[in-house]
């Protein structure tokens, strides 16, 4: 089938961007939206974009230029076809991946991610202006299942006809200091940070050419928030920088049109989601592409074709990491690492690298004003999640939601700094470790194990103990001691006394010291050396 090419790439692509985003903006400024009117508007506007287009068999033979910082528009059909042609040339690259799950899933996970273990997640967007219930505020207000609390809030506090788009100019981020954020993340002990570049509301935190007037440069703060944070993180820390990206948008008329057509059309993917993915990869070089929000089949999203480009040709191809949210049926099945579901923590060893993404505020990913103190995780909760996650082979991605004016609230900052203080003492039990043959203890609950090869090539075992033992005596059933076994507590000088427990297991005497002398008040790590393998 002939592919579409542009007779005048600049003018036509610009026209398509304007009419596409204009239709989206008109819908956003409608308090409820007229589906029939929107459908008619989109149909007319899309027909306009055909002006200047010609059909050409030969055009599909030309490989589309990768998007640069100048944001050249890609011809998606031609790009996909070029991947198929390149795949035939096996000599072109030693690691050439094909647009199939068998091929893409065979790509080794970059080592840095497995060694990092702990990252920070940030959900930040226009939803932080109303800051009520959750980041799903817009959908709860005007989506298919209205949330009574959100509906009542809008009726009581805003005039009739008020639209969600009017929150955009209120998202000013006037107190946002990227360097300050970077310092907080670094102090948390995290090794990577993932920022929402775009959530389901469609607002982009970077100056996207495919989200006219619904982005942080044209509206609200009039700043490139993604660019500022990326620069601050890379200039001031050693953290890896990643980006979350929602493939779909709740109320984008092109997506709604494609969905109404049972995803037999691909107007939204070609005009919005795929070009935006190319934008953020080329402009910000993310080391994680954290995809989400992908209702629709994989072929519709062009996920495999995008990942083929990402792994083979993109500027981050050698070190980028991806997750598993690339369309219907991909979660916990395909991708670089698995997330399976939000707050996924299976409590047992998995046969594939996975990530536990969870929130400090139990009820929301985005900042909300109706949160209570009881809704926040304690430092004990956070350490328990980290210990169990890493013991079972996972990474933990801990989320905080900044406010609309660009602040990380003090309680979030406190939790992050508490985690950093704990990791400063006990990080050896977390970073660069791997699962031991036992994940948790066979006798005492709340003890999680990890392993690491030491400098002389022997295996050291770490036991993270979540509760201080009664009478200062800890019973461990999993380890088998040898005559050379030693036990120590990270942060405490010297060795701890221990004795065998029958044929297997140890009885460890915890140090009888003042609480002021303890390295931590939340959880304690034992280092077990020279155990029986």
Explain what you see:
The chain is of the alpha/beta class and 533 residues long. It is built from 15 helices and 16 strands. It has helices spanning 9-28, 35-48, 76-88, 101-104, 111-116, 137-142, 148-157, 178-187, 225-236, 253-260, 267-284, 298-301, 303-312, 379-391, 410-426; strands at 3-6, 53-56, 118-122, 192-198, 240-246, 288-292, 321-322, 354-359, 394-400, 447-453, 459-465, 473-476, 486-489, 498-500, 506-509, 524-529. A seven-stranded parallel β-sheet has the order 7-6-5-4-3-9-8. A four-stranded antiparallel β-sheet has the order 10-11-16-13. It is globular and about 75 Å long. The N and C termini lie far apart (62 Å). The model is unreliable at 1-21 and 23-93 (pLDDT under 50).
